């Protein structure tokens, strides 16, 4: 569709030297790598201990070095150790202010850990119902709500997520560090009177992008057009573009309808989704995609929606005039937000 009003919303490219913009691009790439690497380090660290096993329930471990490391983070014989294991992994990897704060909040109790982070005012962490790589997952026992279970999220693929958990069981084994697989839909909908029910996920925030992305605003339209053109031209290309982050305004609107705290999360757009939009909505022009940053920054409305499989999504709606309303549909359950379609109504 041709938007006659499109140019009104185009951002003008500021008169900055190319070198300055290049420096900002390189800086953002470095920051992205640092944050991504931190998540990878958490998972890599947790994987190192897969197979570590207790001798008798919560009393001692077969590997003396592992037991020594667990005692160093305040585990003691007789204590359930899943939360202590998560505490160890995070404190082994986190640095600076995040580590200092997390050390005060991470407890040997799954439920105390959850409440500590839920009440934390540091702004360094988020507690919500979205699994992210490296985040801590907390379950609560419905029989005794002072107890529960804890794990580390290893990876996320659509509705499925994988964990590495301490003090879990595999085929009737004693407490062991092992991988597990879950469906977020099943966990959210689980009904149990005595078993474990998902309470939430604890993740470090990524508010650093709020400042970093500003340097790219000037040439974001050119980057979007180039990305869309390549996606159309090369059918094998499946790259992605970092469009924006969840700012204060969008975060409040999402939280109001979902309860999720997503402030600072990245918002990506994939080449496959560009091709899907052109195929499903042939009236779309490549220039229409340059409205994406404006829609994400100043949406009129955010509503909760579901796909045909019952998987939760959100719709972000922006009205430009009496006839044209642009709607974005975004996938929530990943380590970032992903725009999967765009259409007019």
Pairing-aware structural class of the strands and helices? alpha+beta
Proportion of residues in helical segments: 25-40%
Give the averaged pLDDT, no decimals: 83
What global shape is seen? Answer: elongated
Written overview of the protein:
By secondary structure, the chain is α+β, with helices and mostly antiparallel strands. It has two domains: about 5-30 and about 205-345, no CATH class; about 50-205, endopeptidase fold (from Nostoc punctiforme) (Alpha-Beta Complex). About 35% of the residues lie in helices and about 25% in strands. The protein contains eleven helices and twelve strands. The protein has helices at about 20-45, 65-70, 80-95, 95-105, 110-120, 185-190, 210, 220-235, 250-260, 270-280, 290-295; strands at about 125-130, 135-140, 150-155, 160-170, 175-185, 195-205, 240-245, 265-270, 300-305, 310-320, 325-330, 335-345. The chain has a six-stranded antiparallel sheet with strand order 1-6-2-3-4-5. A hairpin with a 6-residue loop joins strand 2 and strand 3. Helix 1 (about 20-45) packs antiparallel against helix 3. It is elongated, with a radius of gyration of 22 Å. Residues about 1-20 and about 205-220 have low confidence and may be disordered.
Which key features would you list for this structure?
345 residues, 2 domains, disordered N terminus, 25% strand, six-stranded antiparallel β-sheet, 12 strands, endopeptidase fold (from Nostoc punctiforme), alpha+beta, elongated, six-stranded mixed β-sheet
């Amino acid at each position: 569709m041709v938007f006659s009003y499109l140019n009104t919303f185009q951002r003008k490219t500021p008169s900055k030297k190319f070198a300055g913009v290049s420096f900002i691009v390189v800086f953002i790439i470095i920051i992205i790598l640092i944050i991504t690497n931190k998540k990878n380090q958490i998972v890599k660290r947790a994987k190192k201990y897969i197979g570590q096993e207790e001798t008798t329930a919560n009393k001692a471990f077969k590997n003396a070095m592992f037991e020594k490391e667990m005692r160093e983070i305040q585990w003691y014989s007789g204590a359930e150790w899943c939360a202590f294991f998560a505490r160890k992994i995070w404190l082994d990897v986190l640095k600076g202010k995040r580590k200092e704060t997390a050390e005060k909040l991470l407890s040997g109790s799954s439920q105390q850990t959850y409440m500590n982070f839920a009440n934390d005012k540091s702004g360094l962490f988020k507690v919500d119902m979205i699994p992210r790589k490296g985040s801590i997952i907390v379950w609560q026992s419905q029989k005794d709500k002072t107890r529960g279970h804890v794990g580390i999220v290893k990876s996320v693929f659509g509705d499925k997520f994988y964990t590495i958990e301490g003090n879990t069981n595999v085929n009737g084994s004693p407490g062991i560090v092992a991988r597990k697989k879950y469906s977020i839909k099943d966990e959210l909908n689980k009904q149990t009177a005595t078993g474990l029910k998902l309470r939430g996920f604890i993740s470090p925030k990524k508010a650093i992008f709020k400042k970093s992305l500003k340097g790219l605003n000037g040439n974001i339209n050119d980057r979007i057009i180039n990305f869309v053109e390549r996606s159309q031209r090369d059918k094998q290309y499946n790259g992605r573009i970092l469009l924006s982050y969840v700012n204060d305004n969008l975060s409040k609107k999402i939280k109001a309808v979902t309860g999720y705290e997503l402030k600072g999360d990245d918002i990506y757009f994939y080449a496959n989704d560009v091709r899907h939009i052109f195929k499903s909505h042939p009236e779309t022009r490549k220039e229409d995609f340059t409205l994406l940053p404006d829609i994400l920054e100043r949406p009129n409305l955010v509503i909760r929606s579901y796909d045909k499989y019952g998987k939760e999504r959100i719709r972000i709606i922006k009205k430009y005039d009496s006839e044209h309303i642009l709607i974005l549909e975004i996938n929530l359950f990943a380590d970032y937000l992903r725009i999967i379609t765009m259409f007019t109504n």
